[in-house]
Every structure is written in structure tokens, then in C-alpha cells.
Amino acid sequence: MKKRILLCLFAILGLSIACKEEGKADYLPESVGAMNTLTVVIDNELWKSSVGDAIRENYTAAAQGLTWDEALFSVTQIPQQIFSGSIRNTSSVLYVMQDSLNLAHMKSNMYSKPQKVGVIKGRNKQELIDNINTTSAEFIKDFKTLEISKAQKRFEKSLNKEKALVDKFNISMKIPSIYRVGREEDNFVWISREIQKGNMNIIAYTMPENGFQNDSTFAQDIIRMRDSIGDLYIKGSDVAGKNNHMITEKAFTPYVFPAEVSGKKAAEVRGIWEMSAYPMAGPFLTYIINDKENNRKLILEGFVFAPATKKRDYMFELEAILKSVQFNVEEKK
């Protein structure tokens, strides 16, 4: 009998501890921090050394596909003794310290949620540098994924309710209400919003499922596809004797990467657009999604026109919108 009572007491105690730990996670404060910012917690002397150089080389490298160099992250460095209180609630943190251990890993929701804390330790500067270099790609991906999810959650506070994407392509995206549908055609939808010095744009259309069959000409086929869509739908100011429309910048081939969007295989394309007969240009991001269930390739693109303005965060917002796409949201009428 005593044994049974002891077992019951241990069970109740274990349940109580588990509930307290779960409750602690539930009551973590909401994380804070501006889009694409990274708090680097590191001793001042290490930050000024080759260790800091390695961090800057990896985390403030130029983001791809922009009209001028802008860093991947806006970095704020603070020493370890200051990393306390509300500062610990920053959503993206890189914690670097010299220690008796040599390790590197990513932790989630340590002080707030959602939060990612990349922890890097080393017994000397070289071990720290090696760990920074070998983990940067994975950590950057984790930080970016977190930022995307935070942006999408923010969009949900006020979503665009227009049905153009559902009606034309049977898809939905988390598009803020400030965006408006500006043009609808049989196989083309253009959605945009005004910003202080220009506009942000989303376009959607489809291609045949077998529209890209030759890997060796894939990049050139993408350029031809974009340029033909620009010729059909994205016209610029009239220029006497010329057909002025959006094209892919002639000087550089876009970056193309494998990707996954909404659980489907895709290609991610980043580059610069320009007008064929007028000096205007800006960055674009295109996803070519293999939508085999609907026997097509769905093309989603975001592009920005904002002369003499930094565009990293604009493009990041468009990326978050495009990656929110959901398929077959309702039956077509």
C-alpha cells in the first residue's frame, strides 16, 4: 500500500513540474525587434577582433538581387553584461563567447517567443571563427524563417479581402489590406501598394506544366518569360517610336536557386528589372512553383519601384507575402 501511495505522489509531482514548465513557455513575453535586425551578444574586445570580422563578413554581407549593396541584417552589438531585461526579448540573437567548450547550436524561445538564439562558443578565437563560418548559412536561414513567420502573423491583423487570386488561380495569400488589385486578365493579376517614393507590386500568372524542359537554358527561359509578360501587361511611360515595357536587366543574369513554397518544389529567382526604353529599374523576386495537382506552373513575383531608397525591407515584405501562398482554397464557381 505504501509503495502505491509513493508512486502516486511521484506521478502527481512529475505532472506538477511538467505543468509548471509548460506554463513557463506559455507565458514567455512576445519577442521584439525590427525586421531584419540581429542582436549580437559578444564581448567588446572580441567584437573588435578577427572574431567580430567573421561575424560581419557573414551576417552583414550584401543581400542578393538589390540595386545597391544592403546588408542581410542590421546588426546591433552589445556586451554580455548588458544582455538582460527587455533586451533579451529580441527575436533574433547571436550569442558568441569564449568558453571552455567548443560548440555551436540554435535554441528557440529562450527568453521570449517566437525567438531564435544562435549560441557559439569556442576555447579560442580560431574555434569561434570556425564555428561562425560553418553555422552562418544554417543560422541565417533560421533567422530569416523566423522573420518571415513574424511578418505573416502581422499581416493577419488586416488582410486584403479581394477575390482575384481565388477566382483566377484558386490560391490565396496573406496580403495586407493596404494592397489593392489594379489589373485582372484571364491569366494575370497585378496587386500593388503605394509607398513614399514609389510602389510595391505583386503579380501572378501561370505557365504550362512543361514550360521549362531544358535545364541548360533555364535562366534564359525565365528571362524570356518575364520579358514577354512585361511586354503584355507592364507598360511604362510612352516613348516616341518605342515599345516601353518591363524587362529583365540586360547586364546581369538573375540568381536562380532551388526552393520550396507551400510544400511544393519551386525555383527562386532574384534580379533587377528595368524598362526597355526608359531609365527606371528595381529589384524583383520570382517564384516558379511546380503545381502538379493543377497541371501548371504558378508564377508569383514581387517587385519594387523606389528610386534613391533602400529596398531590402520592401523586398522582404514581398517575400513573406509570396511564401504565404495556399493552394485550392475553395472550389471555383
TrEMBL record:
Q: Which InterPro entries match?
A: DUF4837 (IPR032286)
Q: Which domain of life is it from?
A: Bacteria
Q: Which UniProt keywords apply?
A: Signal
Leader peptide range in chain numbering: 1-20
Pfam families found in the cross-reference section: DUF4837
Name listed for the protein in its UniProt record? DUF4837 domain-containing protein
